[in-house]
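During the no-cost extension, the postdoctoral fellow (Dr. R.K.) reprocessed legacy sequence entries with the updated structure-token encoder. One reprocessed record is reproduced below for audit purposes.
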Amino acid sequence: MNEQTMKTLEFDKIRSEIAYYALSEEAKGEIQKMKPSHDKHVVQNRLNETTEAKGIIQKSSSVPLHGLHGIIQVMKQLNKGVALRPDQLTTVLDLIESGRKMKQFMAGKEWLAPTISSYVHSLYELTDLEEELKRAIRNGEIDDLASKELGRIRKKITVYEERVKEKLNQILRSSSKRKALQDTIISDRNGHYVVAVKKEYRKQIKGTVHDQSSSGSTVYIEPEEVRKVQVDLNELKADEYLEEQRILSRLTGEVERYAQEISINIETMTHYDYIFAKAKYSVAIDGSQVQLSPEPMIELRNGRHPLLAKEAVPLTLELGKGYKGLVITGPNTGGKTVAIKTVGLLAMMVQCGLHIPAEKSSLFGMFGAILVDIGDGQSIEQSLSTFSSRISNIITILQDAGPDALVILDELGSGTDPGEGMGIAVSILEQLNRLGATILSTTHYSEMKNFASAHPDFENGSMEFDPESLRPTFKLRIGIPGESQAFAIALRLGMHPAIIERAHEITYQEKQTYDKRDQRDWHYEQQLKSKKVDDQPRRQKVQVEKHFEQFAIGDSVAIPSMEEKGIVYKPIDEFGNVIVMMNGKKETIHAKRLKLLLPASELYPENYDFDILFESVENRKKKKLMNRKHVDGLKIDYEE
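Re-encoded structure tokens follow.
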């Protein structure tokens, strides 16, 4: 399953949300590389890990996970002939201590988490190394107890420092030198103990100048009286540095000796962090461990899109059991695309060992491939290239599809001539069925429901529509083909049932009775009443509408006589003329010379700005400027 498929189904967002719950950068990195497996045993083990970890965090206040801060950088420095710093050794010590605490934490949890509690057996306690590091390093510094020699040197340093300070205090207390001193504080400059002397009295204090103030009014002098002791002190500090380096080299060697064990501890702690991040995410989305099937099928019960949380309408469907393909028909904005993306995303999550927001009785099969083609919502300017791109993608899907593939196709056959598009859609579904794939498809072509009804391997589905509120409910209905809901909307808004019944008969070549409850008879009579004065004009108008197809702004049309295509700029007028934008120019063409290729409602997003199609960049800029303020002399030139 490639990254583009994961991105289309928004699995990349799921990975990012899970990574938020991980402590270590190493675990976050592993989560971002998470991919589905089609091995049932592997997936089952991953699910069990998540379930056990979730059980632990629901019963325990805190899990002793380790952030692993800096440990990878420390491990990279080993065996390079360079001693580790005290703070780096502290990082190693923290890891060892965390491993020991994790072993203690997991002890006795075999009944709750038999799988993940066994992972602590991979952790090395490294007691000897832990004790050695604790003895030698304290608060990020080398301790006096790190070696006998270091302890001896530091004691002598303390004695010599006291001697130096005592001699300096004698100078500070001297009445003869008080006038020359800037203050009575002993300072350290470049490893030398000094006193602050006023610049004009510097010759009264014999010694070596080691620094001066920024203003130059004060000089810092190491008095001659302490020079000998200071030399001895500096030698001791040099010995201290050498001994510290010997200690650090020795400790680094010990760490290098246990490098393999430490690396295994890092891997184990990273995996624990990874597992518990999945468990925390399950708690966040109220996820469940679903059942697995060796067969490529899905039984989803009350599943929700995890990124929509509680706002998502629960989705229930079966796929691959009684039928191999589900075709969801019906109007746009009814939730078809969200429904199929939800199914694909949840299937992918399950095969990664993740809990999903659905009932635990849901059943998911193992798919070797999840193949997706979902539109990107581009407008008419890119419709041709979009159609070509989607067909190219579907060709790849046909090459990769097989009995273990879940194929998800959104608005199959759209972006081209409706008749040809429907034919392409049916042909693609038939071929995918021959290949044995499990198919989930949406389409706005009403003819597709006839195909799904007639084919034994396909079933119809539709998104429920509330005729009272005239809004979609976003609930999926299986076995019921989708309808445009035009008749329901017209009836609800008050159109006479007789008119709708006639419309139904024209559309479906069958009679259908529509409900007349809660309707006013006088309202119907007004709709059906004939007025003699207007009878002839009405008949003529109806005759015009009967002969000429209606067009809307933005419709894609063909002009067969000119072998051209264009976009409707102004719809049909009382004379039957339509203004069409062709090759950047507006032409007036009679409606009978036009053929509808694709209606604007299928090509543009809601509230699309048609100025993008019909106006020049310059005119659009002028409009934008005029909407903001008045500009003298600014005018827009429209092409007629």
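Residues 3-126+258-285 form a domain with the MutS, DNA mismatch repair protein; Chain A, domain 3 fold (CATH 1.10.1420). Residues 377-384, 518-522, 531-546 have pLDDT under 50 and may be disordered. The remaining legacy entries will be reprocessed before the final report is submitted.
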